[in-house]
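Summary for the steering committee. The consortium agreed at its last meeting that each partner would contribute one worked example illustrating the joint modelling workflow. Our contribution is presented below. We chose a case with several input lines so that the handling of multiple components could be demonstrated. No manual editing was applied between input and output; the record is shown as generated.
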Amino acid sequence: MNRRLAVLISGRGSNLQAIVDAIADRRLDAEIAVVISNRAEAAGLDRAREAGLETLYISHRAFTSRDDFDRALVDSLVARGVGLVCLAGFMRLVGRHMLEAFPEAILNIHPSLLPAFPGVGAQRQALEYGVKVTGVTVHLVTPELDGGPIVLQRGVPVHGDDTVDSLSARILVEEHRAYPDAIKLVLDGGWRLEGRRFRNGR
Ligand code: GRF
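What follows is the complete predicted structure of the assembly.
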């Protein structure tokens, strides 16, 4: 698979940093072709610049429809020869143009064991529900929010005295390990989808 990545962000960019670090440490054989943010103030853009990466700010507000925003994303990604798109705290739904241009080639990371607790505030949802184990999911993106085939999951225990902040921090440590591992799995190939099951021979 084409190992040129795009990382799409909206904020802090700690998962972007984890991917940058994994590539630098040679744990992940890939290259980040571009980092795109839909928010100009995203701290992740500074991280990307510090790493010497090309950055683009594409505001969804500059477009009258989601379709047009989506087309602008596709144009930018295709122009850079991107093979795999990694959503990392990107707070926009990707639309049909993106899904058609990058079939089975868009990943997202979510801070729960999906299908539990999709959408925003997954850590708070887990805490309030009272689960004893939550975690991290990296999945292929489909039109359904947080609903695509699961590439990799890691569990994280919930402690009795956890707050949303303490639980989020413990999950984040696992996110930073899981995302580079999942990207490697996808790039290394030899996998297939059976229905919604991601099968890689194990
Ligand atoms: C992470 O918790 C990720 O799972 C979720 O959004 C957050 C992004 O954090 N989708 P960061 O911007 O990577 O630090």
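The mean pLDDT is 97. The chain has six helices and nine strands.
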